[in-house]
Design brief:
Layout lengths: L5 E2 L1 E4 L15 H13 L4 E5 L5 H13 L4 E7 L2 H10 L6 E8 L2 H8 L3 H15 L6 E6 L6 H14 L3 E6 L6 H14 L7 E6 L6 H10 L4 E4 L13 H10 L6 E2 L7 H12 L20 H9 L19 E4 L4 H10 L7 H18 L1 E3 H11 L9 E10 L2 E11 L2 E8 L3 H13 L4 E9 L8 E9 L2 E9 L2 H18 L12
Parallel strand pairs: 1-10, 2-3, 2-9, 3-4, 4-5, 5-6, 6-7, 7-8, 8-9
Antiparallel strand pairs: 11-12, 13-14, 14-15, 16-17, 17-18
Helix pairs in contact: 1-2, 1-10, 2-3, 5-6, 7-8, 10-14, 13-14, 15-16
The chain binds 3-methyl-2-oxobutanoic acid and zinc ion (ZN).
């Protein structure tokens, strides 16, 4: 970063706000894999979760704090003692911790949600910041719904928060209501009006309800914000958060405009995007900026001709700068255990022990027999299908026989295993996948509703691994399941079982923005 530029802190909240997308929940080992890729990206702060929400969330934050060395690990806490204590315990393993506490400051939230007066909200915020000091001096305070809060009150609570010891002040546009010019102006006025504003870094956290999260964040940066909260692929509550890749690449590409720069290693952006998409089951739209499959594809003849003559006629960024060439052909049928272990570690996955290596190696060999050439993306999918937090009470697929005949109804026979007991069933259906799901449902009786079924091929070619995402819903709980196989009916059955197992495990998770104080 040139010396005359300020640093723009990149605060990634994929593992916290991103996980609040309905169906995007991740288990501890999936979160750790994402955290490792975020660390490779050189993200400054990883918001690893909301520890009071559940044991799983606490464990994920604790695990990430134990394993991440080059990024600050942050935990979210409402302005409540029990939240702060859980956050403090969860981030204890790292020297580089931050606790982020928040309380709502808009009239509508204070009256209708908190039922608290302005003075009570200020004193609760100050008390919480003081409590955080027991655990860390890296303290972030967010006045929730700042984008709709009254300016004088907002200024007052921020001044008190800084006095109490908050060194990052985050201005959330919680409901995605703001417009770039207005939001930039809000940040500028806060920085100019609050007497002690120079003692804190001003941050922004924008939601995308009107499709303006990135524009609002960048407008704030042009007006003095020096931290942006964002997520990979723009994942997040409702319409999502500002997308990390768009914020980072805009700042990098338009250094003629921005007075600051990030320290992100952009060559890891596409691998990070693919990993988050494959773990959460949220596909990336092909025309998505930076990470969409078409983001660097030139379809029209005129464009192709121009790009061949001189790349910069139509391209403002290089595909390889964001990691589009990273899907390397790495291994084949003759590769050994060591080669597999080494490549897995290079893509951020450390093998725990020899039994895990054996399981993965056998799956790798089976795949290489069918597919011959194994790419990084195939490995990511193998890991996703192998390293879940298997539980003895999970259903496992023992066998599926699927009959597809153009003259008769498709039919499926299934054998599942749970607690060392086998269960068998069969069913016909509208198609082979429908037949498989019906046969599974006869055993598991989940009574869930299928909300989404999608198939993606992981690499090119008809022998590619097909990755299936299934989203199911039951009584308001939504979960995604993922399965991959070169046979898409088998991949579908695995995805459905993955979703069923997640549904069975899911406990009542506390949502940060509901159930407050
Ligand atoms: O959107 C929001 O206001 C949040 C806060 C917790 C920062 O996610
Ligand atoms: Zn948010």
């Amino acid at each position: 970063m040139p010396n005359n530029k300020d640093k723009l802190v990149i605060f990634d909240t994929t593992l916290r706000d991103g996980e609040q997308s309905p169906g995007a929940s991740m288990n501890v080992s999936e979160k750790l894999r994402i955290a490792k890729v975020l660390e490779k990206l050189n993200v400054d702060v990883i918001e690893a979760g909301f520890p009071i929400a559940s044991k799983g969330d606490f464990d994920a934050v604790h695990n990430i704090a134990s394993n991440i060395k080059n990024s600050t690990v942050c935990a979210l806490a409402r302005a409540i003692d029990k939240d702060i204590d859980a956050a403090g315990e969860a981030v204890k393993p790292t020297q580089n911790s931050r606790i982020h506490t928040f309380i709502a400051t808009s009239e509508i939230h204070m009256q209708k949600k908190l039922n608290m007066s302005k003075d009570e909200v200020i004193s609760q915020a100050v008390k919480s910041i003081n409590r955080i000091k027991k655990y860390t001096d890296n303290i972030e305070f967010s006045p929730e719904d700042a984008g709709r809060s009254e300016f004088d009150f907002l200024s007052k609570i921020i001044e008190k928060a800084i006095d109490a010891g908050a060194n990052t002040i985050n201005i959330p546009d919680t409901v995605g209501y703001n417009i770039p010019e207005q939001f930039g102006d809000l940040v500028k006025r806060l920085i100019n009006n609050i007497p002690n504003s120079d003692k804190a870094i001003f941050s922004v956290h924008c939601h995308n309800d009107l499709g303006l999260a990135v524009a609002n964040s960048l407008s704030a940066v042009m007006n003095g914000a020096r931290q942006v909260e964002c997520t990979i692929n723009g994942l997040g509550e409702r319409a999502g958060n500002a997308s990390l890749e768009e914020v980072v690449m805009t700042v990098k590409t338009r250094q003629d405009i921005f007075a600051c720069d990030t320290r992100i290693d952009t060559s890891h952006i596409v691998p990070a995007s693919k990993l988050v998409s494959s773990i959460t089951g949220f596909p990336v739209q092909p025309n998505k900026a930076i990470v969409g499959a078409n983001a660097f594809a030139h379809e029209s003849g005129i464009h192709q001709d121009g790009v061949i003559k001189h790349r910069e006629t139509y391209e403002i960024m290089k595909a390889q700068d964001v990691g589009w060439m990273e899907n390397k052909l790495v291994l084949g049928k003759h590769s050994g255990r060591n080669a597999l272990k080494t490549r897995l570690s290079e893509i951020g996955f450390e093998i725990k022990d020899s039994s895990e290596l054996n399981i993965l190696f056998n799956k790798f060999k089976d795949l290489a027999d069918i597919k011959h050439e194994i790419y990084d993306d195939d490995l990511h999918s193998l890991i996703s299908n192998t390293s879940g937090e298997d539980n003895i009470s999970d259903y496992n697929l023992v066998n599926i026989r699927s009959v597809s005949d153009s003259n008769s109804e498709p039919f499926s026979e299934i054998i599942l295993e749970k607690n060392n007991k086998n269960f068998e069933s069969d069913s016909s259906g509208g198609g082979p996948v429908d037949a498989a799901f019906k046969a599974i449902e006869k055993i598991v009786s989940s009574n869930s509703k299928l909300q989404l079924y999608s198939v993606n091929n992981i690499t090119d070619g008809t022998d590619s691994l097909g990755e299936v995402t299934v989203r199911i819903e039951k009584e308001g709980l939504i979960v995604n399941g993922i399965g991959s196989d070169t046979d898409i009916v088998i991949a579908s059955a695995k995805a459905y079982l993955d979703a069923i197992n997640k549904l069975n495990k899911k406990s009542n998770i506390v949502h940060p923005q509901l159930d407050h104080v």
